[in-house]
Amino acid sequence: MYGGPDVPPALAAIDTATLRRDLFTLAGDSMRGREAGTLDEMRAAAWVADRAREIGLRPAGDDGTYFQFFPMRRLRTADGARVVLDGTPLEAWDEAAIVAPVDAALSQVPMIWIGTASGDSLRRLDLRGMAVAARLVAPARPPVSWISLRAWRYARAALNERIATLADAGASAVVLVADDSTDGAFASMLPQLRRGTYNVDSAGTARPTARIPAVWVRASQLARVRTARRLTLNLRAESFVYPSVNVVAVAPGRDSVARTEHVLFSGHHDHDGVRQPVEGDSIWNGADDNASVSVGMLAIARAWTRAPGRRSALFVWHGAEERGLLGSRWYAWKPTVPRASIVAVLNADMIGRNHPDSAALLGSQPPHRNSNALVDAALSANRRVAGFAIDSSWDRASHPEGWYFRSDHVPYARAGIPSIFFTTLLHADYHTPRDAPERIDVAKLARVAKWMYATGWAVSETAARPGVVPGFRLER
Questions:
Q1: Torsion of CA 202, 206, 209, 214, to 10 degrees
Q2: E strands within 172-293?
Q3: In the CATH scheme, what architecture does the domain 11-74+241-461 have?
Q4: CATH code at 79-235
Q5: Which of 200, 149, 157 is nearest to 321 (CA)?
Q6: CA 238, 239, 244 angle in degrees (round to 5)?
Q7: DSSP class of residue 400?
Q8: Number of other residues whose CB lies within 10 A of the CB of residue 360
Q9: pTM of whole model > 0.90?
Q10: Mean pLDDT for the chain?
Q11: Cα–Cα distance, 138 to 393 (Å, whole number)
Q12: What is the pLDDT of residues 124-154, one digit of tens each?
């Protein structure tokens, strides 16, 4: 049964029929998109834990359970926000959006319209203590035309740059009217701006970080804004905590000594939840992102329990990845096994789309490569088991997506643990309701799961732990 590091013994346990069944459940409409911090995420986590129990994985969370709950701190603009121009309100979260949570109480403050003034023309104006109304202008470094979520990125860059410039010029508040390039992103960004910001809660509090209150207004309100002379704002930031959860399970190794060490398989079970409808569909299912990996990890667990490796396999389905890698940040900080026992992290995100014979391995080249031995094991496993053509371009520091920094291996790499990232990369349905289970290439999903399994098996069977590249530092 056990043929050494080059012969993963239970590949047949990873089958497309079971993957498809699990995928259509976890990414089905009944899970409502699994938004972090909601009952939908808890339902998905409970489903994953139940499957782990059925497979025979042992609980490895807190207090003898499959769960590691962690506090998620949310900072948002409280209900009742008021934006008033010359005595007439703008409808918050319809005509106007609050760009960032902030406490602000301004009454009939003089407001000046500066249009598209920037550079030298802006420096000639005395804006100290004034509320400033302006048109959004193109950011100095707009995102490239083919980047994912470009409309959102463009609008965010334009907002941040314009607000910072006007704050530096002395403005006490700003009202920004969308230009032609950002007005189309207004509706899609409203839910995110209204949700606010999230973080793991370690300090027990959160305070607004915005320098000045900033309001973003639809282009249809241009005439009202440019003629208004007085601004009244009543904004309040509120902060509260509620839980998200990691699902943690282990398949013990067969060697009485080596089983105290762990090969960690990593993914996230959350997605975007229920949001604004697109073509009549309001459930953002997240089939590729990241139900594909969640069910792939279950398949790997079936293989591992059928034929245990020397080392133990630790499976962590992280919560709240979409909120900023919160679950993996928490687990890397507070692991339920000794941190030193984690010999490698094999993380994956989105493994079921694009060309059937292509994939990517991030963390395989400098400056992201933190373990030569782990990368070599993954590339060798690909040659033996999967046979993918590896797209290396997305792992370059110069790639504008910065995709390496957007998944759950990052906190582990920063903690000095050998880490790699398996993915089949982005596609046009990324973060839309069209990321649905029927669009997944289940055969490709199975190939990537077998590749991950074969890599983890090699790490488990090799006597020496994969080392970390001396002097590795993971910073942008």
A1: 140
A2: 173-177, 197-200, 214-217, 230-235, 237-251, 262-268, 273-278, 281-284
A3: 3-Layer(aba) Sandwich (3.40)
A4: 3.50.30.30
A5: 200
A6: 140
A7: T
A8: 23
A9: yes
A10: 96
A11: 28
A12: 998 998 999 999 999 999 999 999 999 999 9
